[in-house]
Amino acid sequence: DTGVSQDPRHKITKRGQNVTFRCDPISEHNRLYWYRQTLGQGPEFLTYFQNEAQLEKSRLLSDRFSAERPKGSFSTLEIQRTEQGDSAMYLCASSLVSAGVSYNEQFFGPGTRLTVL
Amino acid sequence: EDKVVQSPLSLVVHEGDTVTLNCSYEVTNFRSLLWYKQEKKAPTFLFMLTSSGIEKKSGRLSSILDKKELFSILNITATQTGDSAVYLCAVLNQGGKLIFGQGTELSVKP
Question: Which pLDDT tens digit goes with each residue over A27-82?
């Protein structure tokens, strides 16, 4: 257990439905990342936050995807009008970036496995 | 476009063998290279390498980075069945984003 938690762990939904995932990072970590991993591939970057500010979004993140981190603690990732191609493992990671811009390793949560029928 | 390539994609060995996993990269604004182990769940951190030629070790695992040739290797000596997993290589860029390779699936047979 890395200290990063995600909920739910599994989600099965029908095409066209909206889904929302939650990530709780390690409490002192100021950076929070979302990645998507499909079978047989490494994780792909989606977006990240420093505190409550969303600093970068991948072009993989279509307008059906939105992420928030309203108070700089937990984050949510919402997918609207789900498609079968959205089926994947959604991973959250957190890290501490210090004031001198020193990057520490990212710790991953257990992931949310999404299946879109 | 930034890319990280791992080889081989899969490997089957017997307990006690030594394995070497390879990772090459072409990433602008390179900061560090990281290795993770993934066993049917989230990746767990193994090493972070920032400087060339300095070996990092943890038990039977070791890793080294060559920033001139743009590659890293992960060595596992005296493999055990518990080493069976997917090993992920990722490059951290200056923005703090990880760019992952596709992973090497290692299977250690008793």
Answer: 989 999 999 999 989 999 999 999 999 988 888 788 999 999 988 899 999 999 99
Q: Which 3 state secondary structure label does DSSP give B83? A: helix
Cβ B30 vs Cβ B93: under 8 Å: yes
Six token digits for residue B8: 């081989």
User: Chain B residues with CB inside 8 Å of A108's CB?
Assistant: 36, 42-44
Report which of A88, A71, A91, A85 is spatially closest to residue A27, judged by C-alpha positions.
A71
DSSP A58-69: -TTS-TTEEEE-
Query: Which run of H or of E encompasses B96?
Result: none
Rounded to the nearest angstrom, the minimum Cα separation between A17 and chain B is 26
Of chain A residues 73-102, which have a CB less than 8 A from chain B? 91, 93, 95, 97
